[in-house]
Amino acid sequence: MSRSTPLGGLAGALGLEIPTVAAPMAGGPGTPELVVAAAAAGGIGFLAAGYKSAHQLAEQITQVRASTPRFGVNLFVPNPVPVDPAAYRDYLDLLRPWADRFGVELPERPLEDDDAWREKHQLLVDNPVPVVSLTFGLPERESIASLQRAGSRVLQTVTSAAEALRAEAVGVDGLIVQSSQAGGHSGSWTPRRHSDETTTVALVRRIRAVSSRPIWAAGGIVSASDVQQVLTAGAEAAIIGTALLRTPESGAHPVHQQALADAHGGETVMTRAFSGRPARGLRNAFTDEFSAAAPLGFPALHHLTSPLRRASAAAGDPAGLNLWAGTGWRAATTEPTGEVLRRLAAR
After folding, report:
1. Which residues contact 123 (CB under 8 A, 6 or more apart)?
2. 131: domain range?
3. Domain check: are 73 and 139 in the same one?
4. What value, to the nearest 5°, has the Cα angle with vertex 186 and ends 88 and 51?
5. Are 213 and 255 in the same domain?
6. What is the pLDDT of residues 169-208, one digit of tens each?
7. Residue 133 neighbours by CB distance under 10 Å
8. Phi, psi of 10, rounded to the nearest 5 degrees
9. Are residues 238 and 254 in the same domain?
10. Do residues 120 and 222 share a domain?
11. How far is residue 192's CA from residue 323's CA, in Å, rounded to a whole number?
């Protein structure tokens, strides 16, 4: 596909010239540099607002906007899963040997928050960006409408046809269809239940059959063939995440990047051991020991394991790190972001 040929649909309206999009990757991997590189390649990238303060997000928006007008921001929609206090204490006790091993203190009481939703939402109303994507839940109609009135297109992450229909009913501009092949957290609105195991192509077809909204597909997309398959199934763009984790622009921790390079015989697993919410990552000692025991509870478990994860990374030890990765993780390379996105967009 020529860089000089704009796309149609929502992707074309946003100025995309190639149908590949850099995913929002919270926790460090999704840097402003990666977002700018995606735009320079003819695509678009998303800043991940998750785990940042509104002030930090505003600074990154300013940084990206200085280089490109084409980018998006992803917000975590408040959809808490309060942890049972007794289950929290039991899990804390299970984690103590790991805390002793790394010499860290763990929070004795659950920490619950909404990831500064109101502040970040207001920031985007006052300082609009071209496109906002929403994940973890569906906000009220007025929250979506206020972003649209400010000038943003709004995309809602969905993991099922039922979610897609509810999102369409409240007036979103498009759908991010995320399958169980995706790395990192599932965007499911019902985290107490694992999303159905399905391919991205199959889920796009299922949702295309019931919804007329533009679809951007996410999950396990790591080759030009994968991109063409989701486009043929009814998507207008493909969202790339794991394949960008080892790029020079990625902010993924070096231990995470090295694990992706080393674990050729490994596998990914769905686990809630790190955050209390289903997420896909490389199997390691932590997932083996705690996946079955971890209670539901987001963001309480995210805050509980955070000191362990930081210490594991600082020690250069992948055993205690959340090595988020989708099913196509073996395809992650050290090519620049722009080269990856253009290569995957090639017909």
Report:
1. 54, 57, 58, 61
2. 1-78+114-243+332-347
3. yes
4. 65
5. no
6. 999 999 999 999 999 999 999 988 766 788 999 999 999 9
7. 28
8. -65, -40
9. no
10. yes
11. 22
Task: Please give the model's pTM, rounded to 2 decimal places.
Answer: 0.95
The Cβ-side half-sphere exposure at 156, using a 13 Å CA radius, reads 31
Whether residue 307 is found in the same domain as residue 212:
no
Q: What is the 3-state secondary structure (H, E, C) of the chain?
A: CCCCCCCCHHHHHCCCCCCEEECCCCCCCCCHHHHHHHHHCCCEEEEECCCCCHHHHHHHHHHHHCCCCCCEEEEECCCCECCCHHHHHHHHHHHHHHHHHHCCCCCCCCCCCCCCHHHHHHHHHHCCCCEEEEECCCCCHHHHHHHHHCCCEEEEEECCHHHHHHHHHCCCCEEEEECCCCCEECCCCCCCCCCCCCCHHHHHHHHHCCCCCCEEEECCCCCHHHHHHHHHHCCCEEEECHHHCCCCCCCCCHHHHHHHHHCCCCCEEEECCCCCCCEEEECCHHHHHHCCCCCCCECHHHHHHHHHHHHHHHCCCHHHCCCECCCCHHHCCCCCHHHHHHHHHCC
Tens of pLDDT, residue by residue over 42-68, are: 999 999 999 999 999 999 999 999 999
* Tokens (6 digits) for 328: 């196509």
Task: Say if CB 241 and CB 181 are below 8 A apart.
Answer: no
Average per-residue pLDDT for the chain: 95
What mean pLDDT is predicted for residues 8-36? 96
Same-domain pairing of 252 and 305: yes
First-to-last alpha carbon distance for the chain, in angstroms, is 6
- Residues 238 and 263 placed together within one structural domain of the fold: no
Distance (Å, whole) CA 48 – CA 60:
10
